[in-house]
Design brief:
Shape: elongated
Number of domains: 2
Distance between the termini: 23 Å
CATH superfamily of the largest domain: Umud Fragment, subunit A
Helix content: 40-55%
Structural class: alpha+beta
Number of strands: 6
Radius of gyration: 26 Å
CATH class of the largest domain: Mainly Beta
Number of helices: 4
Strand content: 15-25%
Length: 192
């Protein structure tokens, strides 16, 4: 005669403690957020040949509020059209940049193309025309809020931050793997 031992097996299954489940949920959420950040801050720019910047002011609201991570791809100035959002140097050769929309195109007396820009939230076009040598590129993607973590770590500290973060993720993965292997062995011994 066969006996169904399913009720007895169900009794043996223990639920993990609440703290363990909360830790698992929090760490999974953190890993997903870090993964999304790494995707848009490192992987996508590498694939597109773009450079990332963070929008710091409200001049491009509502399309790109402060804290938006943007990817900027270098392009030939002759390919820029009205409506494109570009990032350009405020002064040629200096690192400070701004990201605004192209509202008109014109040419100088010597035939060089210039661009007139305006922030989406600004009431008037920018005072100075943008020269070709100031243009860093066209915005190819933007992700709200992902610029905040990137703006906290800049320059030389960024590479140290990436190394520390990568190491932390690897250590966390190793600890989680070891913990799961131990748990599996305990459950296997308890089932015997």
């Amino acid at each position: 005669m066969l006996v169904d031992d399913a009720p007895r097996r169900r009794q043996r299954v223990r639920r993990r403690p609440l703290t363990s489940r909360l830790w698992a949920a929090a760490s999974t959420t953190l890993l997903v957020v870090l993964g999304v950040f790494a995707l848009f801050a490192i992987v996508v720019p590498l694939l597109l040949g773009a450079q990332t910047y963070t929008v710091l002011t409200g001049s491009m609201r509502p399309t790109m509020p402060p804290g938006t991570l943007i990817g900027v791809k270098p392009v030939d100035v002759d390919r820029i059209r009205i409506g494109d959002v570009i990032t350009y140097q405020l002064e040629s050769g200096l690192p400070a940049v701004v990201t605004h929309r192209v509202v008109s195109l014109s040419q100088t007396g010597d035939g060089r193309r210039t661009l007139r820009t305006q922030g989406d939230d600004n009431s008037a076009p920018d005072e100075d025309a943008v020269l070709p040598e100031q243009v860093r590129g066209v915005v190819v993607y933007s992700v709200p809020y992902l610029g905040y973590p990137g703006s906290l770590v800049t320059g030389e500290t960024r590479s140290v931050f990436v190394i520390v973060l990568g190491t932390a993720v690897l250590v966390y993965g190793a600890i989680a793997l070891i913990r799961d292997l131990r748990r599996g062995r305990r459950e296997k011994r308890a089932a015997s």
